[in-house]
Design brief:
The chain is α/β, with parallel strands linked by helices and about 325 residues long. The chain folds into 2 domains: about 170 residues, no CATH class; about 150 residues, 3-Layer(aba) Sandwich (Rossmann fold). It is built from 11 helices and 14 strands.
């Protein structure tokens, strides 16, 4: 499973590679209740093949209608064959027609991207950066439509300065789960739905044999090696669920020294206190230990594996968004 941004960039590159032009739509601003956030994208060929979303479906239908009747191409030429902004939901009548929430408005940038070697190269670079798990921005000259890239990560998904739009693209977030159990199954399913790339690690013999969640990679390698090699950047989270210090602590001693946006361990208050007493013996400083979320998850009096998983993923999600906010 790929993130929505990676899917759209990848499909756009495929279309350009087969010498098809592509309409690329990017949400610039929203007001009121909006079904999709700033920076969300949708790509479409002139024949109507579409990927991504900028609303709950009604704006997409309106877009396809204008594509089929030639209004989009006409508007593009009237604007001087450069990117232009379409404002949806300006009037109450349009909000009702497009089924937008009361007061909801969207400003969407439309680009007509032709299959030139330069554009193919730019989208190849974007896709490669996302596949390599590094952040990158797509820079669009609003006066010419020229596209370039910048190796940078911005707090805001979209920034417009003068005649230039910078659209920050983030790699897919990864989640490493330690311990093949029922809680891990529910966490993995929820994380997949939230567009995480999920790996389950358990080095104990036979623990992985009957554990299966579609789309989740399984490994019996040593946890500290897995953390060090693949889960040490700000787009990674580590969730210790094994209830076995031989597994959990091995991962934590490495994870708490990384830039991972989240490190948590399941256990009671007593178990968590005992863990914090053990961790200095593994070479961790008090400052590093304070980064640990334990007991794991929001305290919602959860008892069943599914409820515990909800509390965990709620906390992981909150930490992901907190880490992305400007300091």
């Amino acid at each position: 499973m790929l993130s929505s941004q990676q899917q759209i960039i990848g499909r756009t590159l495929q279309w350009l590679g087969s010498d098809q032009s592509v309409w690329l739509c990017t949400i610039l601003k929203t007001w009121g209740s909006s079904p999709r956030p700033v920076g969300a994208m949708m790509a479409c060929t002139p024949e109507g093949d579409l990927i991504g979303s900028i609303s709950g479906g009604c704006i997409e239908e309106d877009f396809l209608d204008q594509l089929r009747n030639g209004q989009l191409k006409q508007r593009f030429h009237e604007e001087g064959s450069v990117p232009f902004v379409v404002k949806y939901g300006i009037t109450a009548e349009e909000q009702a027609r497009l089924k937008l929430p009361c007061g909801g408005q969207l400003h969407v940038l439309l680009e007509f991207i032709e299959p030139t070697d330069l554009n193919k190269g730019m989208f190849a670079r974007l896709l490669n950066a996302l596949e390599q798990h590094t952040s990158i921005s797509r820079i669009v000259n609003l006066e010419s439509g020229a596209i370039s890239t910048a190796d940078e990560s911005r707090d805001d998904a979209v920034v417009i300065q003068g005649n230039q739009m910078s659209h920050s693209l983030s790699p897919m977030y990864r989640l490493l789960l330690l311990g093949a159990g029922d809680v891990a199954k529910y966490v993995a399913e929820m994380a997949r739905a939230l567009e995480y790339d999920v790996t389950l690690c358990d080095p104990r013999p036979n623990y992985l044999d009957n554990w299966e969640v579609e789309g989740v990679e399984k490994t019996s390698r040593l946890p500290d090696d897995v953390v060090r090699e693949r889960f040490s950047n700000p787009y990674s989270g580590i969730v210790a669920l094994a209830h076995d210090p031989r597994v959990d602590d091995m991962a934590l001693m490495e994870a708490l020294k990384t830039d991972a946006f989240y490190v948590g361990a399941m256990g009671s208050e007593r178990t968590s206190a005992a863990r914090r007493e053990r961790l200095p013996e593994l070479g961790l400083s008090q400052e590093e230990i304070e980064l640990l979320h334990a007991p794991i998850g929001f305290q919602i009096e959860s008892k069943t594996p599914a409820e515990i998983a909800i509390s965990i993923m709620a906390e992981v999600t909150a930490e992901k968004h907190r880490a992305r906010r400007p300091a």
